[in-house]
């Protein structure tokens, strides 16, 4: 069968789709990856075939075009404190809050990061190439529109917690309690117009919830940490992919003391360009601990710092999949790739979550599972972070909990293992092919 992957145009989102794309291609299926030109090199460096669609995204500019004030508000997190899509506490998910979230995120994020030209190009390509399955990123709705236009089956491939699934279930339930004339769904309104523009109207062709949540969801988050969503879900073992890399000789040298990794990731810097946790504060917290710290810091971060503590090794990039097996703990920003790679290797975590998508609820669920301690950036002090790191290192319960989750992940089907499942689901969901 032909499988079209459709990631959000950021390197970390491409990386989340590579292992499954490899598995399907190794099983003999045709695979292509379509998204904006920004990440074509990331796709081809993974050995996959890229299909550029639309204009370059330039994510930071698209998040808040032509509005310097809004850029600053986004960076500072002011508006997120009011309309945070990562707010999952049941008592906070009022109809008013949910309406505000979708009313804000639809024009600010979705319409800006999935512009008309990109959707039009993807639909045209899909109608020509005729994929059997479209695997799309939950951050971009071009994929399901292209699937609907070409008759393909389609599924979301998650990179983190299923916020959209949870919020949509709550939101649709709230709308159903209103009279039809008062049901205002910004996401439905936008996608409905997109479908009409491509001649997709009427029963089975116009808007339905499958356009938002997929026909099923491929989820690498361990079931024990996933959000309580009732949508069809296919668990998938997380297989780390860090991009092309090489292993530095020092990684193979035996550490003289316990090693910890400190990383703020790249995804938040790519989108907004500002760390929400002070690098200096993080380094001060570990400076006097009897540990070896491997800190992933770029040139911009290093330039703002003075001399590094003697127990800190700064590296611009190191593949986490190679580094974390040697670590006793990891300090990070809550990003999906770092979080899941640490779980895959059974490494306890200290999370200072940036206020971006599901980083905060992910950190809270890890804390509740006993695999992590967490503190929001605005409450972080060197003393508080030092206490959390010391506790995670010295309390064996964190290592035991991390080992339990790792065992759960090892019992989940691999990307290669779910290929037969996908083949059956495609047969059940793909629109009948027309002949002649």
Automatic annotation (TrEMBL):
SUPFAM superfamilies: UDP-Glycosyltransferase/glycogen phosphorylase. Pfam families: EryCIII-like_C (PF06722), EryCIII-like_N (PF21036). InterPro entries: EryCIII-like_C, EryCIII-like_N, Glycosyl_450act, Glycosyltransferase_28, UDP_glucos_trans. It comes from Streptomyces roseolus. This is Activator-dependent family glycosyltransferase. Residues 22-265 form the Erythromycin biosynthesis protein CIII-like N-terminal domain. Belongs to the glycosyltransferase 28 family. CDD domains: GT1_Gtf-like (cd03784). Keywords: Antibiotic biosynthesis, Glycosyltransferase, Transferase. Residues 281-425 form the Erythromycin biosynthesis protein CIII-like C-terminal domain.
């Amino acid at each position: 069968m032909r499988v079209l992957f459709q990631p959000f145009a950021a390197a970390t989102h491409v990386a989340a789709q590579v292992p499954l794309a490899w598995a399907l291609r190794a099983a003999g299926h045709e695979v292509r990856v379509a998204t904006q030109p920004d990440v074509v090199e990331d796709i081809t460096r993974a050995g996959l075939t890229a299909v550029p669609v639309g204009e370059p995204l330039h994510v930071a500019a698209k998040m808040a075009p032509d509005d310097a004030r809004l850029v600053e508000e986004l960076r500072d997190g002011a508006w997120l404190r009011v309309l945070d899509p990562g707010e999952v506490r049941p008592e906070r998910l009022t109809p008013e809050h949910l309406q505000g979230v979708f009313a804000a995120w639809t024009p600010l994020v979705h319409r800006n990061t999935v512009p008309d030209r990109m959707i039009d190009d993807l639909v045209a390509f899909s109608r020509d190439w005729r994929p059997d399955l479209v695997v799309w990123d939950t951050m971009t709705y071009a994929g399901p529109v292209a699937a609907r236009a070409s008759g393909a089956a389609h599924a979301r491939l998650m990179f983190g917690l299923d916020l959209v699934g949870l919020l949509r279930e709550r939101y649709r339930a709230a709308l159903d309690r209103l009279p039809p004339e008062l049901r205002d769904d910004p996401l439905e309104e936008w996608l409905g117009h997109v479908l009409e523009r491509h001649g997709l109207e009427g029963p089975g062709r116009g808007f339905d919830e499958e356009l938002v949540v997929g026909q099923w969801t491929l989820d690498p988050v361990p079931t024990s940490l996933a959000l309580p969503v009732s949508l069809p879900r296919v668990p998938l073992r997380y297989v780390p992919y860090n991009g092309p890399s090489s292993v530095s000789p020092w990684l193979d040298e035996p550490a003289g003391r316990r090693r910890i990794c400190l990383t703020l990731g790249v995804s938040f810097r790519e989108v907004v360009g500002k760390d929400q946790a002070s690098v200096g504060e993080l380094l001060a917290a570990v400076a006097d601990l009897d540990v070896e710290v491997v800190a992933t810091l770029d040139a911009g971060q290093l330039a703002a710092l003075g001399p590094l503590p003697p127990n800190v090794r700064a590296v611009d990039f190191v593949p986490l999949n190679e580094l974390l097996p040697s670590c006793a703990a990891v300090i990070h920003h809550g990003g999906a790739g770092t979080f899941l790679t640490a779980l895959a290797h059974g490494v306890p975590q200290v999370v200072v979550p940036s206020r971006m998508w599901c980083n905060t609820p992910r950190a809270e669920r890890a804390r509740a599972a006993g695999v992590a301690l967490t503190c929001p950036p605005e409450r972080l002090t060197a003393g508080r972070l030092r206490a959390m790191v010391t506790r995670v290192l010295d309390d064996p319960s964190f290592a035991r909990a991390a080992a339990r989750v790792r065992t759960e992940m090892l019992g989940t089907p691999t990307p290669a293992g779910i290929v037969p499942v996908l083949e059956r689901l495609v047969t059940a969901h793909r629109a009948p092919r027309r002949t002649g």
